[in-house]
Amino acid sequence: MSYEKKGYDRVAKEFGQVVNMSADELRDWLTTDESRSVGWTRKGESESVGHQSGRRIVDILGKDPSDLSDADYDHMNKVVGYCRRHLAQRPGRNVASSRWRYSLMNWGHDPLKGRGELDD
Q1: Is 98 within a domain?
Q2: Domain presence at residue 91
Q3: How many domains are contained in the chain?
Q4: Domain of life here (predicted)?
Q5: Burial level of 109, CB count in 10 A (0-12/13-18/19+)?
Q6: Of 72, 76, 92, 105, which is least packed with CB atoms within 10 Å of its CB?
């Protein structure tokens, strides 16, 4: 997908709103058993899609915005969509140790931080 300036700006803004973990926080999280315990894994692979996404987010967060590619923006847009869908499915209780939270954290969003609601 090719983005025009307005599209880049929108995706960057939404990504910045929803990804509330720093690159270091996310990198550390991805080393935990909890991080590896959640998510869907494609046939023939050993790492979940969300865990792969987390590694990609760490890479994106480490880049200068002027160095982001269309593929980076595509992934950033995918992250926003995933987080929007899953934030709408918040469980009633026990959020702190829920698979729901762990999955979102693989995608760079810790719902216990309280930030990450997207503007319409």
Answers
A1: yes
A2: yes
A3: 1
A4: Bacteria
A5: buried
A6: 92
Which residue carries 């309280």 as its tokens? 114
Hey, what are 96's tokens?
């702190």
Q: What is the pLDDT of residues 49-78, one digit of tens each?
A: 999 999 999 999 999 999 999 999 999 999
Which residue bears the tokens 């209780």? Answer: 93
Instruction: Take residue 58 and report the two structure tokens written for it.
Output: 């760490």
DSSP conformation letters of 56-95: HHHHHHTS-GGG--HHHHHHHHHHHHHHHHHHTT--SS--
Instruction: Tell me the two tokens of residue 40.
Output: 């869907």
In this structure, what token pair is assigned to residue 59?
């890479």
* Structural domain of 13: 5-113
In the chain the first and final C-alpha atoms are separated, in Å, by 22
Q: Identify the burial level of 84 via C-beta atoms within 10 angstroms of its C-beta, where 0-12 means exposed, 13-18 middle and 19 or more buried.
A: middle
